[in-house]
Amino acid sequence: MNMVELSVAELAGRPDLVLPGVADLFQPDQPDPPRRLAIGASDGDGYQGAVVIELSQDHGTAHLRSIMVRPGSRRQGIGRRLLEAAAERLKSRGYAQLLAEFMTETGGELTTAGFLQACGFISPQPGIHIRTGPFTSLQGQRWLSLRLPDEFVVAPWGNLAPSERVLLLEAASYEYPDILSPFEDDAEVDPSRSLLLRYRGQPVGWMLLEELEPRTVLFKTMYVFKRHQRMARGVALFAEAIRRLMAEGHYPNGMFFVEHENEPMRRFMERYFFSPDLRQETMWRSYRTLP
C-alpha cells in the first residue's frame, strides 16, 4: 500500500474518499489549496482511502478535516497508516500538533474516539453542544417571555453606526474574547435579523444570525457586556431574537450551540432545549502531538 499526496482534481467527485462536509472543498476547477494536505492510500486497484488535513498559517497546528477508507478495505489498518503518513509529513514541515473534531448524537457511542486514541490522540473531550430543530418545540417555555428593561433598546445589527463599530472594536481588548467577536467572518451575517443591543444609547451586546439552510437559521454569536450578564440580559436578548423569527415565519428552524466551557449557558441549554423535536449533538475534540 503506497501513501501518496493527492491533488484537488484527484479528490473531486470521490465521495468514497472524502467526508460529505469536506467534499465541496474539492472541485475540478479549483487550484490546489496551499494550506491543505491530502494523502491517498493506493494499491493495484486504485485508492482505498484518503486523509485531508487543513494547515494553519503559523505552522503550529494542523486540523484533521476528513479520513475515509472504502468499505471493502476497512479493518486492515489503512486509516491508521494514513494518519501516520500525514503525521510524518506534518512533522517535516514543522507542525507540532494535529487536531481532530467529530460529531455524535448526544449520548451516542463514541466509536471515532477509540480509533483516534489507537492512533495516538488523547481521549476526546466535549467541545460544543448543539441543538437543531423547529422553534415550535420551544413554545410555552417561560424564558421565551423574558423582556429587557426600558433602558435597553434592540435594533437590527445593520443599524450599527461607524462610531459604535469603533467602540466595540476597542472593547475587544478587555471585554470579550476573539471567538465572540461580532466582526469575525461577518460576511454571511444577516444584518436585518441579527440584533444589536444598546443600553442608554451605547452598544453593549449582539445576537448574530446567518442562514444555514433555506429553512434554518444559525444562532452564530451572542454576547452581552459583563456588567449586564448577571441579570439574564443575554437570555432576554436570545428570547427576543426567537420571538421575532417566529413572528416573521421565514425560518421555521434554528441551530443553537454553546461551548462546553460556558457552563451557565450549557446548563441553560440542557434544561430548556430538551424536546423530541430537537436534534441533540455534541462536537468532540482531541489532538495528537507531533514530536
UniProtKB/TrEMBL annotation:
GO terms for cellular component: ribosome. Keywords: Acyltransferase, Ribonucleoprotein, Ribosomal protein, Transferase. PROSITE patterns: GNAT. Residues 1-149, 155-291 form the N-acetyltransferase domain. The keyword Ribosomal protein applies. It comes from the Bacteria. One of its GO terms (molecular function) is acyltransferase activity, transferring groups other than amino-acyl groups. It holds the Pfam family Acetyltransf_1. InterPro entries: Acyl_CoA_acyltransferase (IPR016181), Bact_Acetyltransf (IPR050832), GNAT_dom (IPR000182). This is Ribosomal protein S18 acetylase RimI-like enzyme. It comes from Paenibacillus methanolicus.
